[in-house]
Design a protein that fits this description.
The protein is built from 3 helices and 11 strands. By secondary structure, it is of the alpha+beta class.
Length: 157
């Protein structure tokens, strides 16, 4: 997990996910950084999230995002889907934004590198925060798997 500046406010606990297509901002985080809902565009398409569940979409919003720390930073405008759900992160940066800043992500080293005017910036993820997020997510998966097995006709050991 990393931190970035969105609309002039530092936003912590941002997950970097280079496998998906939609950047996400949680509605609660949007409210906390003082962005009014009137700035959002209406989105009629439902958002299919984890476990193929439909998550309520509040809308889409274009934000000014600064990735990195001055002087090694990039500021861009990017669209985020605003969803109403509870996650341990405030936002999820995905492939479109990573592509726009020409970022290279290393999951092994929890590092993201991208070019800036002053040179190459490197952002190191927070391993402790990511581990907490992964453990919480995996506990939910394990509980779901146990429920599925208990309801199935599989022989029990």
């Amino acid at each position: 997990m990393i931190s970035t500046v969105m609309e002039g406010h530092m936003v912590y606990r941002i997950l970097v996910d280079h496998d998906n297509l939609v950047n996400i901002l949680l509605a609660e985080a949007m409210t906390k950084i003082g962005i009014h809902a009137s700035k959002m565009a209406l989105v009629l398409t439902p958002f299919i999230g984890i476990e193929k569940s439909v998550m309520p979409v509040k809308g889409a919003i274009e934000l000014t995002v600064t990735v990195g720390i001055a002087p090694y930073c990039v500021t861009i405008q990017h669209t985020f889907m605003v969803i109403i759900t509870h996650l341990l992160c405030n936002a999820i940066i995905r492939r479109p934004l990573l592509h726009q800043i020409s970022a290279m992500v290393s999951t092994k080293y929890l590092t993201m590198k991208f070019p800036t005017v002053k040179g190459v910036a490197a952002m190191k993820g927070n391993q402790e925060a990511l581990r907490k997020y992964a453990n919480t997510f995996l506990k939910g998966k394990k509980a779901l798997l146990v429920d599925q097995l208990q309801g199935s006709n599989l022989p029990h050991a």
